[in-house]
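User: quick one
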Amino acid sequence: MELQFLIPRRLLAGVCALVTFFGLWGCEERIRIHTDASSPRLVIYGYITTDTLCHGIWITRSSDYFSTGKPQPVSGAVACIRSGEEIHSLSENASGPGYYRMETPAAGRVGETYTLEVSLDFDGDGETETYQAVSFLPPPARLDSIALVPSLLSEYFMETLIWGRLPDEEINYFSMHFYLNDTLLNDSLQGFSLSSDEFLNSKELRGLPAFYLNQRRKSEVLLAGDRITFQMESITREYSDFISQAQSESRGAMPLFGGPPANLETNIRSLQPSSSQIGVSGFFTAYSKARISMIYR
Amino acid sequence: MQHKKQIPALLLLLLFCAQNLLGQEKNFTISGTIKDRHSGEDLIGAEVLVAGTHTGAVSNAYGYYVLSLPQGNYTLVFSYLGYVPKEINLSLTANAKQDVTLVEGGVELGEVVISAEQKNNRPGKAEMSTEKLSAKSIKSVPALMGEVDVIKAVQLLPGVQATSEGSSGFSVRGGGHDQNLVLLDEATVYNASHLMGFFSVFNNDAIKDVTLYKGDIPASFGGRLSSLLDIRSKDGNNQRYTATGGIGLISSRLTAEGPVGDKASAIVSARRTYADMFLFFAREENLRNSTLYFYDMNAKVNYRIDPNNRLYLAGYLGRDKFGMRYAGMAFGNKTGTLRWNHIFSPLLFSNFTLMASSYDYYLRSEISSQLSQEFESGLEDYAFKADFSYHPNPANHLKFGYHFVFHTFLPGEGGGIGEESIAGRIAMDREFAMENVLYLANETDIAGKLRLKYGLRFSTFQNIANGQEHQPKGSIYHHFERLEPRAGLVYLLNTDQSVKAGYTRTVQYIQLASNSSAGSPLDLWFQASPDVKPQLCDQFTVGYFRNFAYDAYEFSAEAYYKDMRHVVDFKDHARLLINNDLTGELRFGQGYSCGLELMLRKTDGPLNGWIGYTLSQSRRRIDDINQGRWYRSPYDKPHNISIVGTYEITPRWSASANWVYASGTPVTYPTGRFQIEDSYVPVYSGRNEYRYPAYHRLDLSLTLQLSKPGKPFRHELNLSLYNAYGRKNAWTILFRQEDDQPDVSYAEKIYLFTFIPSLTWNFSF
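Assistant: Done. Structure below.
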């Protein structure tokens, strides 16, 4: 179980959950819905991080909501990531159509601005369309130490505490991930733990509870010798919003607290005239990582 | 500036028109109060009619009436819905005072003649788009979990819809749920919901009268675009001490009232839920230590200083509390009203009122000492009103007055709790505003068959600086002024039939920052400002009204068209909480709604109730929403039917039922999908392009009188069944992925209440 710190949205979410737990007599039933098919949208999603890797992007085509297949890859695109004079071409992976990655490993640099450019003929009209997205790579947090203690929340929870310092930027946005023996515990979109220090009174982290391990959950049971890794990604506000919107829209909204459904905001821009009818979704971002590990004894 | 100069001129013109209509003939007045004989409660909206004519009057909110008539002999007929009418013969040779008491139901013995005439003169009243509900009729409607609820009864009226299953939020004629002005003893109730909206804040035992204005809002009221729900609490029995109460499935309530000396009476009413008491038996310790309840309390004292002066002091306090060990929330309203009625002369009635109203909510999260935090938000109003009612002659009834409101908005403050918390404290700037209103209206009778009503409301709204952004604290940095004309006419085809038309302009200066169509306790109110123009609505109505069978049946057909401007909505994924730049999240546009409302009501006999049908359409066009194209408003439900009936089977047994049907709520469905981080994310249709399945529900109740007639202690047992045939109405529809086949998506309906029985024991003595 992850713990987000100090975003009022999370405070609200907790209260909503509390109210839902108490107040609703809700029952669930599957229902057959017919919706018209929407025009396929171009979907571009990817990132570059401070890890030295062959970073890449996925290019796919959206499908009907109730289709049952995998996302349809889009092949034949020409893509690159630029930063100043530095250009990394992305090539389509032969074993994974629609996945375009760097040919040689590289690491994103803190403070740089990265631009993704993608050219392709998505609608098959013989004309090439070009898309672009820009992202700044924010500085990482400094993680000094990590500890595990029994939690006061529940006798079944172990609490992960972290020490360190957040970047000196006015407001930082983070996503957090937790590994147990190199297995990512929050690997789904809903598991993405988003946070911000907008309302913190200090940049110093002094034993901040960051994650809870539920000892009644098989995948989270701790044994002596287990390696625990906490990873904190410094992300842009726009990417934080994108993931938050994606979580919210994929989960669905309750009438009391949710707003009307809306498509995710994207930073992928078409360089075609505005008359272009191709819809675009997805996101390209750059982020830095900080990690800290310990062995459980 | 030109506009400013026109305002006094228009008010003077109105006054001049009214003055021209003042009687040239020498008249005498007959005035007094109309009360319930047994409780001494003022009867609001009781009618006085000069027999054989169309001349008459209606008692005001304090039971006071006045008629101005030439010298002569008259028979006056006093009537009130559900009461035995009374005829009084008099010879009018001088100004006279005639207080009248009426008896509820049954047959009254004594000096008074029982008359079936004019039990309900709805066609003749110079009002339309107005519905009255008595506490008794509200009580007869089957209720969710046995909790008799004013707003749930209001939702059964034509043109009114619940905003979602079980919600106390309501939409009137396609308007938003924040476009309804809800008043309790004239004080604004900003959030009329308990328990996340499933129950309203009004305890029916403390309520005397409920009037809903769907249009044709009197010039003395304003501030909301769509409707006025005017709720008046009981004054307290001034004849004897009584108590009423009940023990229900989720709450108990007790009301005590009685005379205080010779000149005063008082009432205190309280209600509390006790779901949390059952949590004590839960296995989970966290659950055992949880809090889950709401309470409310109404109190009122009225003191008759002398026949011409009367004081009222009324208050309401209600709060919801939900909490576990690590999180909690609380919210509630407080209102207070101090009112002085003064009769300057039989022709001039006045009312001076001081009011205070507040709403606030509080959130708490204490997962650990470092992460403990809290947040609170709310608003406060302080208001003064001076209202005058002047009856210069039988043909005219002038109303005029002045209102002042001072608003304080508390957008939010909070942060870490305790020294260990790493959350900083934040306090968003408080905001202040003032409203001033002058109004003048006249109702005039022309040639007996034509009644004309016209008025003008001149409102100003001023933003007051809070000392930030280079404005001296307390200075006015922006100013709005709006004219709100109101007009209506009634043409009596005969004593049973009339046609009516009306026009109402309404202006709304404050609105809810609410992303949800149902409303939540965490919604914030915010004010019109240089960046947010006041919302404006022009409503046109025409209607045909007819009574049948000696007024046992009423039929009405009303058509309306509403043109709304500067309508507020929010951008996609708007952030409304703790946002100093809320205006950046707003989007503005226009809207319209139109419809036809049909209603057939039976008011007499062992079987009574109504059948209502509404055919309507409601659309919005807002910048940046739905690509700027028109879309269905969340309250667009083309077909809406309610059938409400109560049948007195025997003097001991009575049964009630209501059936409602509404077209499905407009909804935005996913039409496509794509994958992000191994999860599918929807691509949506245009805004509100689809609808949920149609909503329908049958509720039943059965009441058994346990006491024999005439006994001082009366008690009854009420068994009610909500959603009797277990319709699984969609509260929301969510879209999910199969656990074992993540590429397969499916839709899942969440429904709330199916087949909810409840048992309530009610008593009075």
